[in-house]
Protein backbone atom coordinates (compact mmCIF):
# COMPACT_ATOMS: atom_id res chain seq x y z
CA UNK A 1 0.00 0.00 0.00
CA UNK A 2 2.69 2.62 0.82
CA UNK A 3 4.35 1.89 -2.51
CA UNK A 4 1.06 2.46 -4.34
CA UNK A 5 0.54 5.76 -2.56
CA UNK A 6 4.02 7.03 -3.38
CA UNK A 7 4.06 5.93 -7.03
CA UNK A 8 1.99 8.91 -8.28
CA UNK A 9 4.22 11.25 -6.33
CA UNK A 10 7.35 9.71 -7.84
CA UNK A 11 5.82 9.98 -11.30
CA UNK A 12 5.02 13.65 -10.72
CA UNK A 13 8.61 14.33 -9.65
CA UNK A 14 9.94 12.52 -12.74
CA UNK A 15 7.62 14.48 -15.03
CA UNK A 16 8.78 17.73 -13.42
CA UNK A 17 12.42 16.79 -13.93
CA UNK A 18 11.64 15.79 -17.51
CA UNK A 19 9.98 19.13 -18.23
CA UNK A 20 13.24 20.76 -17.16
CA UNK A 21 15.03 18.66 -19.76
CA UNK A 22 12.84 20.13 -22.50
CA UNK A 23 14.45 23.48 -21.68
CA UNK A 24 17.96 22.08 -21.25
CA UNK A 25 17.74 20.23 -24.55
CA UNK A 26 17.45 23.60 -26.32
CA UNK A 27 20.73 24.87 -24.82
CA UNK A 28 23.09 23.22 -27.38
CA UNK A 29 21.12 24.94 -30.15
CA UNK A 30 21.55 28.33 -28.46
CA UNK A 31 25.24 27.76 -27.72
CA UNK A 32 26.13 26.92 -31.33
CA UNK A 33 24.11 29.85 -32.65
CA UNK A 34 26.05 32.20 -30.37
CA UNK A 35 29.09 31.11 -32.38
CA UNK A 36 27.29 31.47 -35.73
CA UNK A 37 27.26 35.27 -35.60
CA UNK A 38 29.98 36.03 -33.03
CA UNK A 39 32.52 36.78 -35.75
CA UNK A 40 30.33 39.38 -37.50
CA UNK A 41 31.49 42.53 -35.60
CA UNK A 42 35.13 41.38 -35.65
CA UNK A 43 35.73 41.21 -39.39
CA UNK A 44 36.70 44.87 -39.50
CA UNK A 45 39.51 44.08 -37.06
CA UNK A 46 40.70 41.08 -39.05
CA UNK A 47 40.56 43.15 -42.24
CA UNK A 48 42.89 45.68 -40.63
CA UNK A 49 45.23 43.06 -39.13
CA UNK A 50 45.36 40.54 -41.98
CA UNK A 51 44.52 42.81 -44.92
CA UNK A 52 41.74 41.57 -47.20
CA UNK A 53 39.01 43.18 -49.31
CA UNK A 54 35.23 43.26 -48.92
CA UNK A 55 35.07 40.79 -51.78
CA UNK A 56 37.17 38.35 -49.77
CA UNK A 57 34.86 38.90 -46.81
CA UNK A 58 31.95 37.84 -49.02
CA UNK A 59 33.88 34.68 -49.97
CA UNK A 60 34.37 33.84 -46.28
CA UNK A 61 30.63 34.20 -45.74
CA UNK A 62 29.93 32.04 -48.80
CA UNK A 63 32.06 29.21 -47.37
CA UNK A 64 29.94 29.31 -44.22
CA UNK A 65 26.69 28.99 -46.18
CA UNK A 66 28.06 26.21 -48.40
CA UNK A 67 29.26 24.17 -45.42
CA UNK A 68 25.95 24.74 -43.62
CA UNK A 69 23.95 23.52 -46.60
CA UNK A 70 26.28 20.56 -47.05
CA UNK A 71 25.79 19.66 -43.40
CA UNK A 72 22.02 19.78 -43.82
CA UNK A 73 22.24 17.25 -46.66
CA UNK A 74 23.74 14.72 -44.23
CA UNK A 75 23.00 15.57 -40.60
CA UNK A 76 19.22 15.16 -40.68
CA UNK A 77 19.28 11.67 -42.19
CA UNK A 78 22.21 10.55 -40.01
CA UNK A 79 20.44 11.85 -36.90
CA UNK A 80 17.23 10.01 -37.74
CA UNK A 81 19.19 6.75 -38.28
CA UNK A 82 21.91 6.84 -35.61
CA UNK A 83 20.41 9.15 -33.01
CA UNK A 84 20.65 12.81 -31.98
CA UNK A 85 23.78 12.44 -29.84
CA UNK A 86 25.69 10.81 -32.71
CA UNK A 87 25.33 14.07 -34.63
CA UNK A 88 25.34 16.66 -31.85
CA UNK A 89 28.55 15.61 -30.08
CA UNK A 90 30.77 15.78 -33.23
CA UNK A 91 29.08 19.07 -34.15
CA UNK A 92 29.91 20.58 -30.76
CA UNK A 93 33.47 19.31 -31.18
CA UNK A 94 33.73 21.15 -34.50
CA UNK A 95 32.28 24.28 -32.87
CA UNK A 96 34.98 24.13 -30.19
CA UNK A 97 37.59 23.69 -32.91
CA UNK A 98 36.15 26.75 -34.69
CA UNK A 99 36.58 28.79 -31.50
CA UNK A 100 40.25 27.78 -31.33
CA UNK A 101 40.86 28.67 -34.98
CA UNK A 102 39.02 32.01 -34.71
CA UNK A 103 40.97 32.95 -31.58
CA UNK A 104 44.34 32.30 -33.26
CA UNK A 105 43.48 33.33 -36.85
CA UNK A 106 46.19 35.24 -38.68
CA UNK A 107 45.30 34.37 -42.29
CA UNK A 108 42.24 34.35 -44.53
CA UNK A 109 42.57 30.56 -44.82
CA UNK A 110 42.17 30.26 -41.04
CA UNK A 111 39.01 32.37 -41.10
CA UNK A 112 37.62 30.24 -43.91
CA UNK A 113 38.39 27.05 -41.95
CA UNK A 114 36.70 28.45 -38.85
CA UNK A 115 33.60 29.41 -40.81
CA UNK A 116 33.52 25.97 -42.45
CA UNK A 117 33.55 24.30 -39.03
CA UNK A 118 30.87 26.70 -37.82
CA UNK A 119 28.62 26.05 -40.81
CA UNK A 120 28.79 22.28 -40.31
CA UNK A 121 27.96 22.67 -36.61
CA UNK A 122 25.04 25.00 -37.31
CA UNK A 123 23.62 22.61 -39.93
CA UNK A 124 23.76 19.80 -37.39
CA UNK A 125 21.99 21.65 -34.59
CA UNK A 126 19.16 23.02 -36.72
CA UNK A 127 18.36 19.46 -37.79
CA UNK A 128 19.41 17.08 -35.00
CA UNK A 129 19.40 19.64 -32.17
CA UNK A 130 15.90 20.91 -32.81
CA UNK A 131 14.63 17.37 -33.30
CA UNK A 132 16.22 16.41 -29.96
CA UNK A 133 14.15 19.07 -28.20
CA UNK A 134 10.99 17.56 -29.68
CA UNK A 135 12.15 14.02 -28.81
CA UNK A 136 12.67 14.97 -25.18
CA UNK A 137 9.28 16.67 -25.10
CA UNK A 138 7.47 13.75 -26.71
CA UNK A 139 9.24 11.24 -24.52
CA UNK A 140 8.21 13.05 -21.35
CA UNK A 141 4.66 13.99 -22.32
CA UNK A 142 1.62 12.57 -20.60
CA UNK A 143 -0.23 9.73 -22.27
CA UNK A 144 -3.05 11.86 -23.69
CA UNK A 145 -2.80 13.20 -27.23
CA UNK A 146 -3.72 16.69 -25.99
CA UNK A 147 -0.81 16.76 -23.56
CA UNK A 148 1.55 15.35 -26.17
CA UNK A 149 0.62 18.00 -28.76
CA UNK A 150 0.94 20.72 -26.12
CA UNK A 151 4.44 19.54 -25.27
CA UNK A 152 5.37 19.44 -28.97
CA UNK A 153 4.25 23.06 -29.35
CA UNK A 154 6.48 23.95 -26.39
CA UNK A 155 9.36 22.09 -28.04
CA UNK A 156 8.91 24.03 -31.29
CA UNK A 157 8.82 27.28 -29.30
CA UNK A 158 11.96 26.53 -27.28
CA UNK A 159 13.96 25.20 -30.24
CA UNK A 160 13.07 28.23 -32.34
CA UNK A 161 13.76 30.72 -29.54
CA UNK A 162 17.09 29.06 -28.75
CA UNK A 163 18.16 29.57 -32.34
CA UNK A 164 17.26 33.25 -32.60
CA UNK A 165 18.36 34.18 -29.06
CA UNK A 166 21.77 32.60 -29.61
CA UNK A 167 22.08 34.26 -33.00
CA UNK A 168 21.50 37.65 -31.38
CA UNK A 169 23.65 37.09 -28.30
CA UNK A 170 26.73 36.24 -30.38
CA UNK A 171 27.29 39.63 -32.06
CA UNK A 172 26.37 41.50 -28.87
CA UNK A 173 28.97 39.60 -26.84
CA UNK A 174 31.56 40.02 -29.58
CA UNK A 175 30.88 43.74 -29.96
CA UNK A 176 31.01 44.52 -26.25
CA UNK A 177 33.98 42.28 -25.40
CA UNK A 178 36.01 43.44 -28.39
CA UNK A 179 35.76 47.05 -27.17
CA UNK A 180 36.06 46.50 -23.42
CA UNK A 181 38.28 43.43 -22.93
CA UNK A 182 41.88 42.69 -23.90
CA UNK A 183 42.61 40.64 -27.02
CA UNK A 184 39.49 41.80 -28.93
CA UNK A 185 39.46 38.90 -31.40
CA UNK A 186 40.18 36.27 -28.73
CA UNK A 187 38.11 36.91 -25.61
CA UNK A 188 34.66 36.24 -27.08
CA UNK A 189 35.76 32.84 -28.40
CA UNK A 190 37.16 31.85 -24.99
CA UNK A 191 33.77 32.71 -23.49
CA UNK A 192 31.98 30.83 -26.26
CA UNK A 193 34.17 27.76 -25.71
CA UNK A 194 32.99 27.66 -22.10
CA UNK A 195 29.35 27.86 -23.25
CA UNK A 196 29.92 25.04 -25.73
CA UNK A 197 31.55 22.90 -23.04
CA UNK A 198 28.37 23.17 -20.94
CA UNK A 199 26.37 22.22 -24.04
CA UNK A 200 28.48 19.06 -24.41
CA UNK A 201 27.61 18.10 -20.83
CA UNK A 202 23.90 18.70 -21.56
CA UNK A 203 24.00 16.43 -24.64
CA UNK A 204 25.84 13.68 -22.78
CA UNK A 205 23.09 13.55 -20.14
CA UNK A 206 20.17 14.25 -22.47
CA UNK A 207 17.41 11.61 -22.11
CA UNK A 208 16.97 10.68 -25.77
CA UNK A 209 16.80 7.12 -27.10
CA UNK A 210 18.40 5.70 -30.20
CA UNK A 211 15.94 5.50 -33.12
CA UNK A 212 14.18 2.21 -33.72
CA UNK A 213 12.07 2.93 -36.83
CA UNK A 214 13.92 2.23 -40.12
CA UNK A 215 14.64 5.12 -42.49
CA UNK A 216 14.92 4.14 -46.16
CA UNK A 217 16.96 5.80 -48.88
CA UNK A 218 20.58 6.97 -49.29
CA UNK A 219 22.49 8.57 -46.43
CA UNK A 220 23.35 11.71 -48.41
CA UNK A 221 20.34 13.22 -50.18
CA UNK A 222 18.26 16.35 -50.48
CA UNK A 223 16.18 16.24 -47.28
CA UNK A 224 12.43 15.92 -47.56
CA UNK A 225 9.30 15.05 -45.63
CA UNK A 226 6.94 12.04 -45.67
CA UNK A 227 4.23 11.87 -48.32
CA UNK A 228 1.37 14.18 -47.39
CA UNK A 229 3.53 16.71 -45.53
CA UNK A 230 4.95 18.50 -48.58
CA UNK A 231 2.42 21.33 -48.43
CA UNK A 232 3.23 21.96 -44.76
CA UNK A 233 6.91 22.19 -45.63
CA UNK A 234 6.21 24.53 -48.58
CA UNK A 235 4.04 26.86 -46.48
CA UNK A 236 6.68 26.97 -43.75
CA UNK A 237 9.47 27.81 -46.19
CA UNK A 238 7.31 30.43 -47.94
CA UNK A 239 7.23 32.51 -44.74
CA UNK A 240 10.41 31.41 -42.93
CA UNK A 241 12.73 32.02 -45.92
CA UNK A 242 11.90 35.75 -46.39
CA UNK A 243 12.12 36.26 -42.62
CA UNK A 244 15.57 34.73 -42.17
CA UNK A 245 16.76 36.46 -45.35
CA UNK A 246 15.75 39.82 -43.87
CA UNK A 247 17.71 39.18 -40.67
CA UNK A 248 20.70 37.88 -42.67
CA UNK A 249 20.72 41.14 -44.62
CA UNK A 250 20.75 43.13 -41.38
CA UNK A 251 23.65 41.05 -40.08
CA UNK A 252 25.72 41.38 -43.24
CA UNK A 253 24.98 44.90 -44.45
CA UNK A 254 23.42 46.46 -41.36
CA UNK A 255 26.80 47.76 -40.09
CA UNK A 256 27.40 49.45 -43.45
CA UNK A 257 23.97 51.08 -43.28
CA UNK A 258 24.65 52.21 -39.71
CA UNK A 259 27.94 53.68 -40.82
CA UNK A 260 26.20 55.58 -43.62
CA UNK A 261 23.28 56.80 -41.49
CA UNK A 262 25.01 57.33 -38.15
CA UNK A 263 28.57 57.82 -39.27
CA UNK A 264 29.68 55.27 -36.67
CA UNK A 265 31.76 52.12 -36.85
CA UNK A 266 31.07 51.12 -33.25
CA UNK A 267 31.05 47.35 -32.94
CA UNK A 268 28.93 47.62 -29.78
CA UNK A 269 26.18 49.57 -31.56
CA UNK A 270 26.14 47.12 -34.48
CA UNK A 271 26.04 44.19 -32.06
CA UNK A 272 23.30 45.82 -29.99
CA UNK A 273 21.09 46.31 -33.05
CA UNK A 274 21.54 42.66 -34.02
CA UNK A 275 20.76 41.58 -30.45
CA UNK A 276 17.62 43.75 -30.36
CA UNK A 277 16.51 42.23 -33.66
CA UNK A 278 16.83 38.68 -32.37
CA UNK A 279 15.44 39.60 -28.96
CA UNK A 280 12.31 40.74 -30.82
CA UNK A 281 12.33 37.38 -32.65
CA UNK A 282 12.47 35.59 -29.30
CA UNK A 283 9.86 37.70 -27.50
CA UNK A 284 7.28 37.58 -30.28
CA UNK A 285 7.30 33.79 -30.26
CA UNK A 286 6.31 33.68 -26.60
CA UNK A 287 3.66 36.32 -27.32
CA UNK A 288 1.99 34.40 -30.17
CA UNK A 289 2.57 30.79 -29.08
CA UNK A 290 -1.11 30.17 -28.29
CA UNK A 291 -2.35 31.39 -31.68
CA UNK A 292 -3.06 28.87 -34.42
CA UNK A 293 -0.28 28.12 -36.87
CA UNK A 294 -1.87 29.82 -39.89
CA UNK A 295 -2.29 33.05 -37.94
CA UNK A 296 1.32 32.94 -36.78
CA UNK A 297 2.60 32.37 -40.32
CA UNK A 298 0.40 35.12 -41.76
CA UNK A 299 1.59 37.58 -39.11
CA UNK A 300 5.18 36.60 -39.90
CA UNK A 301 4.72 37.37 -43.60
CA UNK A 302 3.13 40.74 -42.76
CA UNK A 303 5.99 41.62 -40.41
CA UNK A 304 8.64 40.85 -43.02
CA UNK A 305 6.72 42.91 -45.59
CA UNK A 306 6.59 45.89 -43.23
CA UNK A 307 10.31 45.43 -42.52
CA UNK A 308 11.14 45.87 -46.18
CA UNK A 309 8.93 48.97 -46.45
CA UNK A 310 10.66 50.60 -43.48
CA UNK A 311 14.09 49.53 -44.79
CA UNK A 312 13.40 51.35 -48.06
CA UNK A 313 12.26 54.39 -46.09
CA UNK A 314 15.42 54.27 -43.97
CA UNK A 315 17.90 54.29 -46.83
CA UNK A 316 16.05 56.98 -48.81
CA UNK A 317 15.57 59.32 -45.83
CA UNK A 318 18.73 58.47 -43.87
CA UNK A 319 16.49 57.65 -40.92
CA UNK A 320 18.09 55.73 -38.09
CA UNK A 321 14.71 55.10 -36.32
CA UNK A 322 13.36 53.58 -39.55
CA UNK A 323 16.42 51.32 -39.82
CA UNK A 324 15.97 50.14 -36.24
CA UNK A 325 12.25 49.57 -36.87
CA UNK A 326 13.11 47.55 -39.96
CA UNK A 327 15.52 45.38 -37.95
CA UNK A 328 12.93 44.75 -35.22
CA UNK A 329 10.26 43.88 -37.80
CA UNK A 330 12.70 41.57 -39.56
CA UNK A 331 13.31 39.81 -36.25
CA UNK A 332 9.61 39.36 -35.55
CA UNK A 333 9.08 38.13 -39.12
CA UNK A 334 11.76 35.47 -38.79
CA UNK A 335 10.59 34.52 -35.30
CA UNK A 336 6.97 33.95 -36.28
CA UNK A 337 7.84 32.32 -39.60
CA UNK A 338 10.24 29.96 -37.88
CA UNK A 339 7.87 29.10 -35.04
CA UNK A 340 4.94 28.53 -37.41
CA UNK A 341 7.00 26.36 -39.74
CA UNK A 342 8.49 24.22 -36.96
CA UNK A 343 5.06 23.81 -35.37
CA UNK A 344 3.60 22.59 -38.66
CA UNK A 345 6.32 19.96 -38.99
CA UNK A 346 6.27 18.91 -35.32
CA UNK A 347 2.51 18.44 -35.54
CA UNK A 348 2.54 15.80 -38.25
CA UNK A 349 6.03 14.50 -39.11
CA UNK A 350 6.91 11.29 -37.20
CA UNK A 351 9.91 11.39 -34.87
CA UNK A 352 12.05 9.15 -37.10
CA UNK A 353 11.82 11.70 -39.96
CA UNK A 354 11.79 14.94 -37.96
CA UNK A 355 15.49 15.84 -38.16
CA UNK A 356 15.38 15.38 -41.94
CA UNK A 357 12.26 17.56 -42.12
CA UNK A 358 14.00 20.28 -40.08
CA UNK A 359 16.96 20.07 -42.45
CA UNK A 360 14.65 20.49 -45.45
CA UNK A 361 13.04 23.56 -43.87
CA UNK A 362 16.40 25.17 -43.17
CA UNK A 363 17.77 24.45 -46.63
CA UNK A 364 14.74 26.27 -48.02
CA UNK A 365 15.47 29.19 -45.72
CA UNK A 366 19.25 29.44 -45.91
CA UNK A 367 19.59 29.34 -49.70
CA UNK A 368 17.93 32.76 -50.19
CA UNK A 369 19.37 33.98 -46.86
CA UNK A 370 22.84 33.38 -48.27
CA UNK A 371 22.31 34.29 -51.91
CA UNK A 372 20.28 37.51 -51.70
CA UNK A 373 22.41 39.49 -49.19
CA UNK A 374 25.63 38.49 -50.99
CA UNK A 375 24.12 39.49 -54.35
CA UNK A 376 23.00 42.77 -52.82
CA UNK A 377 26.52 43.44 -51.57
CA UNK A 378 27.98 43.04 -55.03
CA UNK A 379 25.11 44.99 -56.61
CA UNK A 380 25.66 47.83 -54.15
CA UNK A 381 29.29 48.10 -55.24
CA UNK A 382 27.97 48.87 -58.74
CA UNK A 383 24.85 51.00 -58.20
CA UNK A 384 25.36 52.23 -54.65
CA UNK A 385 24.18 51.00 -51.26
CA UNK A 386 20.88 52.90 -51.39
CA UNK A 387 19.83 51.51 -54.77
CA UNK A 388 21.13 48.03 -53.98
CA UNK A 389 19.22 47.95 -50.70
CA UNK A 390 16.07 49.16 -52.43
CA UNK A 391 16.31 46.37 -55.00
CA UNK A 392 16.78 43.83 -52.22
CA UNK A 393 13.81 45.20 -50.27
CA UNK A 394 11.48 45.06 -53.28
CA UNK A 395 12.54 41.49 -54.08
CA UNK A 396 12.03 40.29 -50.53
CA UNK A 397 8.77 42.19 -50.16
CA UNK A 398 7.43 40.31 -53.18
CA UNK A 399 8.51 36.97 -51.68
CA UNK A 400 6.96 37.80 -48.29
CA UNK A 401 3.63 38.82 -49.82
CA UNK A 402 3.63 35.65 -51.92
CA UNK A 403 4.26 33.57 -48.82
CA UNK A 404 1.42 35.25 -46.96
CA UNK A 405 -0.97 34.63 -49.84
CA UNK A 406 0.06 30.97 -49.96
CA UNK A 407 -0.74 30.55 -46.26
CA UNK A 408 -4.11 32.26 -46.73
CA UNK A 409 -4.98 30.18 -49.81
CA UNK A 410 -3.77 26.64 -49.20
CA UNK A 411 -4.70 24.28 -46.40
CA UNK A 412 -2.96 20.97 -45.69
CA UNK A 413 -5.37 18.02 -45.97
CA UNK A 414 -4.52 16.62 -42.55
From TrEMBL:
Parts of the chain that traverse the membrane: 21-46, 58-79, 91-114, 120-143, 155-177, 183-204, 233-257, 269-288, 295-316, 322-345, 357-379, 391-410
GO MF entries: transmembrane transporter activity
Domain Major facilitator superfamily (MFS) profile as annotated: residue spans: 1-414
Membrane topology, as annotated: Multi-pass membrane protein
Main location as per UniProt: membrane
Intracellular or extracellular location(s): Cell membrane
InterPro entries: MFS (IPR011701), MFS_dom (IPR020846), MFS_trans_sf (IPR036259), MFS_Transporters (IPR050171), Sugar_transporter_CS (IPR005829)
Keywords associated with the record: Cell membrane, Membrane, Transmembrane, Transmembrane helix, Transport
Gene Ontology CC: plasma membrane
Name of protein: MFS transporter
Organism: Streptomyces roseirectus
